[in-house]
Structure formats: structure tokens, C-alpha cells
């Protein structure tokens, strides 16, 4: 009966518990050249904004590569490119820096990139019953309420949700 030991420099044939033949064996190790791929990292934020980061990654070990992106969902892959996606439990950096709640002329609560007067709508929510708003609330929305943080985002939505128009 013959057995072989992986990564051993010696192969032994055993017959009834005694070594009959001892012969040198060359260990075969397959060396793979490093591979460079384009990695696309797509982040999806609570406000619906999607940001993409593109990096060139040189893969020396597939195991290390997959471990590095263990927190990401694989979306697509081919020889030259790998696409990962991750949901981020926060609002986008764009909203934190330059997002403002405001109201359109039709009474829709929106988030704008910049002040509402610039009319660059990023996201629309619901119609507000303007008659129920206090005058200072309407003025705040016309001027623009900075989003700043996730907490502020949720707080403003919750506050104005009670003024939402219910169509019948």
C-alpha cells in the first residue's frame, strides 16, 4: 500500500509497517503572477444618493482580496473589474455638506443641493398642507433648513410629516 504526504520532500511506500522504498519527490507549487483589477465600490446612502469610488487593486492573494472586502456585497465581476456595493446607515456626504430642506412652489417638501432658491432638487418627499404650517415654519422652509446630520434629516422629516397633505 502506498501513501503520499502533501508538501513532503519524501514519498514513502509502506509494506506491512516497514519502509520498503524511500524516493525524493519534487513539491509542485503553482506560482500565480499578481493580477491588477479595477475595483468599483458603490455606497448607497439612506437618502438614496449613490457614490462610487474606483481603485486599482493588485491581487497577490485571492484569499486576502476577498477578506479585504468581506463587508461588501459582490455585484459583478469579470477578468478586469470587480464591483462591490454597500448600504451605508447614514446620509450622504453631499447632504451633510450642501443639503437643505425646502419647499417648492407647489408645496412639496424637497431636499436641495444648495439653498432652495437655486432649485437643484435632490430628493422629493410629500406635499405639505401650507395652511397648517406656522408662518415661521414656512419661512424656514423657504430659506432652507441645513440637513447637517442623519439625526437632523430624520427630525425634519418627522416634524413636517404631520403637515403632509392626505389626498382622498
From TrEMBL:
Pfam family, any one: BofC_C
Domain Bypass-of-forespore C N-terminal: 37-86
Bypass of forespore C C-terminal domain residues: 89-161
Highest rank taxon of the organism: Bacteria
Protein name, UniProt field: Bypass-of-forespore protein C
Organism: Anaerobacillus isosaccharinicus
Amino acid at each position: 500500500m502506498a501513501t503520499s504526504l502533501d508538501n513532503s520532500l519524501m514519498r514513502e511506500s509502506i509494506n506491512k509497517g516497514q519502509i520498503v522504498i524511500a524516493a525524493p519527490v519534487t513539491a509542485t507549487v503553482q506560482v500565480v503572477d499578481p493580477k491588477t483589477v479595477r475595483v468599483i465600490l458603490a455606497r448607497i446612502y439612506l437618502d438614496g444618493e449613490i457614490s462610487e469610488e474606483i481603485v486599482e487593486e493588485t491581487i497577490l492573494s485571492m484569499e486576502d482580496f476577498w477578506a479585504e472586502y468581506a463587508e461588501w456585497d459582490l455585484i459583478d465581476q469579470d477578468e478586469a473589474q470587480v464591483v462591490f456595493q454597500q448600504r451605508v446607515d447614514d446620509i450622504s456626504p453631499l447632504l451633510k455638506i450642501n443639503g437643505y430642506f425646502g419647499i417648492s412652489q407647489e408645496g412639496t417638501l424637497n431636499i436641495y443641493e444648495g439653498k432652495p432658491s437655486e432649485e437643484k432638487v435632490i430628493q422629493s418627499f410629500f406635499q405639505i398642507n401650507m395652511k397648517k404650517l406656522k408662518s415661521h415654519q414656512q419661512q424656514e422652509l423657504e430659506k432652507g433648513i441645513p440637513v447637517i446630520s442623519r439625526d437632523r434629516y430624520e427630525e425634519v422629516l418627522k416634524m413636517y410629516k404631520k403637515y403632509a397633505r392626505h389626498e382622498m
